[in-house]
Inverse folding.
């Protein structure tokens, strides 16, 4: 069933892996996030390839792309757009901001003030923006890939938990392995090669693929497993609070996308386990340091929950 | 985001259509032609809609269809209520619903309607065949319901097996309810008022040609089981209405009641039990002459046993009859007079003949013999297809046509008697019957319907004279099939001559009789007897209800506890998986906590390469069943686990 529809997307993954070397797991997670219709947060130190990943995904999927570099003096109008009074028509004209694109790369989102952050995040949730008392729909599909520096860096406003919950996944890229770094240093690939990448899909194909992902079968046994996991995060002594129902829905959607990328028409516990760290870490707060949960804590949780 | 309703796929819709069709079909036998046609058209439209994958018709068109269906029902029945109109409404609305099946919810509506429709069939027929048909329909509908609940199970055999299992699981509850549900003193199925139309059976008037129509039905009129050795066939006269008034064309029963008959009993009682099919009249068709009467019945002045109410459903009666008897040897003058009366005009030749013969004979008895001899010796024929008779029907029959059926002989005989001044009357009923050797029941059909006569002779009272016996003795001795010339239009069922066919019919009828006696005939009395045997002689309906509620509550409680207890390992796939894990544990291979089957198989493959192919097969099938809901992979999983067990116990 989905084997045939999944194949064109395989080319996207391959191409993406050629640009961002040595990170197949991360590119796959990012793709799954977009296929599940969720927004993606990439968190890592500067220069690890966050922008490259976001940019190349946008190009490969044939999405209309805009980028905003977030700074501390960025204003909401810089994202949403402004109305300008035109003398010849004696009327205001709305000039749409960069948010009116299919894929918005919000670079270093935690450098902007909370007010500006929340303007973006409202739009992410509602799929529409309101400016000058008028509501305008955002394009469809509409994705936000945001990058942020680890919050302990100087000059950052960490995103509050409620806002973090709007991102389906948060991934970290980490240092490349030796081989990948060597290829990069040897100049076999350049990060600017994203600019030359040709789209492999178009904006019409993507919703169809997303629909196919939604058709991936979920059995009662799998839902049992999901519930057991959600319950475990809520009972767990290491976490301040558990995963929300919205997180549960997101987990299911992400697992579906993961299964679909694997060419299967049903979700297995393996899929849930594969996406759980990316879906859960940024939503959970560790009791020890108040920081986001560590992937190792999630792995431990997975070892504690029996698979029904 | 709004979740779209679960769509119905084509296979499920075909299944629903088939279920609806089977649930409706038997109603086609009694619905008016126009409604049958409309329902057929709607079902056909539903079929083509599914076949060509068209969208449901617009709301306005559907409303229009609903309106016209109601109008047609109103036109046919003048009402929307009552049994027939109600059933017609259900059938049409079910067909309409099939036209707008968009989501699984619509499917469930069709199934629920279908279940309800199944019940309505019992308003019309409670035969074994109906029961079997409805079980089939129930099975199909349940399979459809399972298919809707788990859209991914597509293997038809599996669906039916599951539906069958559900049905069997419901069986104990059904039996419990059947045996213990408080019975009312009446039929199992109370019928609405309009249910008693168009019954076949004896009529209370007689015209020439009437019985010969009835005889063409092979339907069973009643069944009899003798407690004592059965008498010879030619003595089996089952008495129905007695016809004393003749208006020149039709024979009627006398109006008003006479004092009870005086019966002198000359032989011991013959006891038997009779199960009468509904015939809508009150007579109980007892053998002459009835002795002790069952409760709720009485003897009328003409020795016919009557029930208190009309027989509107099958009923069982016990009688004791005395085959040798003397009836009313001293008759009251007004009754004698009534039975000598003839219309003032008509049939002059017969009258003249009767007067002439009576004068030349010495006694009434001699005159009776003379007439019977006349029937036997002259070329009279016994046939189901008598010619049309003129205005003076009796003259026409006796002198010209001479071809007729029992009512012709009885009527003309009585006419001759009365013309000669001898009191005489016609008795309607049944004669003979056929023994089913399999269950020892005598089966009396409509084709055994008969008319004979009684004459009143001084000192002897009313004497039965059957002129048909003079013309066609084999009718009385062997039955109608032997008496009629071949080629007469008798129902096929009683004509079967081959041994195997007759045997098959006996089997079928014995089966039906067992169904009637034991399943449908399980009434208040039988329930009381059963409860008495179980050591509870005084049960009334309140205690029964309490018992049932108690038992039902216990059953539900037990099932709930069992289901709760079984929940973790209730799934068959999961049980098999646990079984496989236990096998592996014997080889010291353990599933780590939180390890998925795939990871487990991967890990084991590295440590035990020899185990890998077998374990992989188990894991593949297990994941298919457990997480893909592909129940059809269950047998393969079972096999793979068995294989693994064989290998690991080696």
């Amino acid at each position: 069933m989905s084997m045939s529809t999944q194949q064109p997307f395989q080319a996207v993954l391959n191409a993406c892996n050629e640009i961002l070397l040595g990170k197949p797991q991360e590119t796959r997670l990012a793709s799954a996030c977009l296929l599940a219709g969720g927004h993606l947060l990439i968190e890592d130190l500067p220069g690890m390839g966050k922008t490259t990943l976001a940019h190349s995904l946008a190009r490969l999927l044939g999405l209309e792309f805009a980028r905003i570099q977030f700074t501390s003096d960025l204003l909401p109008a810089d994202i949403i757009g402004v109305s300008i009074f035109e003398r010849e028509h004696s009327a205001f004209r709305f000039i749409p901001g960069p948010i009116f694109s299919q894929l918005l790369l919000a670079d270093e989102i935690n450098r902007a003030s909370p007010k500006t952050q929340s303007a973006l995040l409202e739009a992410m949730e509602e799929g529409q923006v309101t400016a000058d008392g008028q509501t305008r729909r955002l394009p469809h599909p509409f994705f936000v890939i945001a990058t942020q520096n680890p919050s302990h860096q100087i000059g950052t406003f960490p995103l509050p938990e409620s806002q973090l919950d709007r991102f389906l996944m948060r991934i970290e890229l980490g240092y490349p392995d030796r081989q990948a770094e060597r290829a990069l240093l040897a100049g076999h690939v350049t990060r600017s090669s994203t600019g030359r990448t040709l789209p492999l899909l178009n904006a019409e194909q993507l919703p169809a693929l997303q629909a196919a992902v939604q058709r991936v079968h979920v059995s009662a046994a799998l839902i049992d497993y999901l519930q057991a996991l959600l319950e475990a995060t809520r009972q767990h002594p290491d976490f301040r609070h558990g995963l929300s129902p919205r997180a549960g829905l997101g987990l299911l959607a992400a697992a579906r996308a993961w299964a679909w990328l694997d060419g299967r028409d049903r979700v297995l516990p393996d899929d849930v386990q594969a996406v759980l760290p990316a879906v859960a870490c940024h939503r959970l707060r560790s009791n020890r340091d108040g920081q986001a949960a560590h992937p190792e804590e999630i792995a431990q949780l997975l070892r504690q929950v029996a698979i029904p | 985001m709004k979740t779209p309703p679960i769509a119905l796929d084509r296979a499920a819709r075909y299944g629903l259509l088939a279920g609806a069709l089977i649930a409706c079909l038997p109603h086609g036998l009694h619905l008016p032609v126009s409604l049958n046609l409309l329902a057929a058209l709607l079902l056909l439209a539903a079929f083509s809609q599914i076949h060509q994958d068209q969208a449901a018709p617009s709301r306005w068109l559907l409303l229009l269809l609903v309106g016209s269906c109601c109008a047609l029902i109103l036109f046919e029945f003048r009402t929307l209520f009552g049994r027939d109109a109600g059933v017609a409404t259900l059938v049409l609305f079910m067909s309409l619903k099939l036209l707008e099946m968009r989501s699984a919810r619509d499917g469930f509506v069709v199934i629920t309607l279908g279940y309800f429709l199944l019940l309505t069939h019992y308003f019309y027929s409670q035969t074994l065949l109906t029961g079997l048909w409805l079980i089939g329909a129930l099975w199909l509908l349940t399979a459809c319901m399972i298919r809707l609940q788990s859209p991914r199970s597509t293997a038809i055999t599996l669906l039916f097996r599951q539906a069958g299992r559900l049905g069997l699981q419901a069986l104990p509850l059904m039996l419990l309810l059947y045996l213990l549900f408080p019975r009312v003193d009446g039929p199992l199925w109370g019928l609405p008022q309009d249910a008693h139309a168009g019954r076949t059976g004896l009529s209370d008037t007689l015209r020439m040609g009437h019985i010969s129509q009835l005889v063409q039905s092979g339907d069973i009129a009643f069944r009899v089981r003798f407690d004592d050795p059965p008498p010879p066939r030619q003595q089996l006269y089952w008495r129905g209405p007695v016809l004393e008034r003749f208006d020149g064309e039709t024979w009627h029963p006398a109006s008003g009641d006479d004092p009870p008959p005086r019966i002198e009993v000359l032989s011991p009682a013959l006891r038997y039990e009779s199960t009468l099919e509904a015939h809508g009249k009150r007579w109980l068709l007892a053998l002459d002459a009835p002795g002790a009467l069952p409760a709720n019945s009485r003897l009328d002045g003409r020795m016919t046993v009557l029930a208190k109410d009309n027989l509107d459903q099958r009923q069982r009666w016990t009688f004791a009859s005395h085959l040798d008897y003397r009836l009313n040897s001293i008759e009251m003058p007004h009754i004698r007079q009534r039975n000598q009366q003839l219309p003032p005009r008509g049939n002059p030749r017969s009258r003249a003949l009767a007067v002439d013969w009576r004068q030349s004979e010495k006694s009434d008895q001699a005159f009776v013999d003379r007439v019977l001899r006349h029937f036997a010796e002259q070329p009279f024929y016994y046939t189901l297809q008598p010619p049309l008779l003129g205005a003076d029907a009796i003259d026409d029959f006796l002198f010209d046509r001479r071809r007729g059926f029992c009512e012709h002989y009885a009527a003309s005989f009585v006419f001759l008697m009365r013309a000669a001044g001898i009191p005489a009357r016609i008795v309607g009923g049944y004669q003979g019957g056929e023994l089913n050797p399999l269950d020892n029941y005598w089966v009396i059909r409509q084709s055994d319907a008969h008319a004979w006569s009684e004459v009143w002779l001084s000192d002897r009272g009313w004497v039965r004279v059957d002129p048909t016996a003079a013309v066609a003795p084999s009718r009385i001795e062997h039955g109608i099939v032997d008496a009629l010339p071949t080629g007469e239009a008798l129902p096929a069922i009683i004509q079967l001559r081959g041994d195997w066919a007759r045997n098959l019919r006996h089997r079928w009828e014995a089966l039906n009789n067992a169904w009637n006696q034991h399943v449908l005939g399980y009434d208040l009395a039988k329930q009381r007897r059963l409860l008495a045997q179980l050591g509870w002689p005084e049960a009334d309906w309140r205690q029964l209800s309490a018992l049932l509620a108690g038992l039902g509550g216990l059953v539900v409680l037990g099932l709930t506890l069992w289901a709760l207890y079984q929940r973790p390992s209730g799934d068959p796939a999961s049980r098999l998986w646990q079984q496989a894990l236990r096998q592996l544990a014997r080889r010291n291979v353990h599933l780590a906590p939180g390890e998925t089957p795939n990871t487990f198989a991967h890990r084991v493959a590295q440590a035990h390469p020899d185990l890998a192919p077998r374990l992989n097969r188990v894991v593949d099938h297990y994941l298919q069943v457990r997480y893909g809901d592909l129940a059809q992979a269950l047998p393969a999983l079972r096999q793979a686990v068995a294989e693994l067990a064989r290998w690991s116990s080696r």
